[in-house]
Amino acid sequence: MKKVFLALLAALGFQVNAAAQNSFENVDVEHFERIIKSDSVQIVDVRTPEEYASGHIAGALNLNVQDSTFKSQALAKLDKARPCAVYCRSGKRSALAASILAAEGMKVINLLGGIIAWVEAGKPTTKD
Fold it and tell me: Which residues form the Rhodanese domain (predicted)?
């Protein structure tokens, strides 16, 4: 009986973990571009300030996910009622940021391939 109970708990744990991993949407460049054209979407660049200054998507807010205050800054500056479109250099840091924001109840869209994929697709960046 104990083994059956442990097996059920383990199966439940795997299901909860899988659900947590899919708490945000990963999209390609074309889909990301369509999404960020909406006025209701918040664009968040989660790279370092130096990376952001070298070129970013117009209208993006820079919140460095590697900063220890990322979560508190994000909660202070972002509207939880509006979707967030996040990106980084290659997609790894933005996936981490997306997980953090989604855990706070936000709807999050992550750009697969990051700004590298964006630039390779010929999409514009700015240094404003």
Answer: 37-127
Helices (H) and strands (E) counted in the chain, each on its own, are: 6, 5
The whole model's pTM is what?
0.82
Torsion of CA 38, 56, 100, 19, to 10 degrees: 60
Give the residue numbers annotated as catalytic, written as ranges: 88
Examine residue 127 and state whether it is found in any structural domain, yes or no: no
CB atoms within 10 A of CB 82: 13
CATH assignment of the domain containing 78: 3.40.250.10
Q: How far apart are CA 9 and CA 76, in angstroms?
A: 37
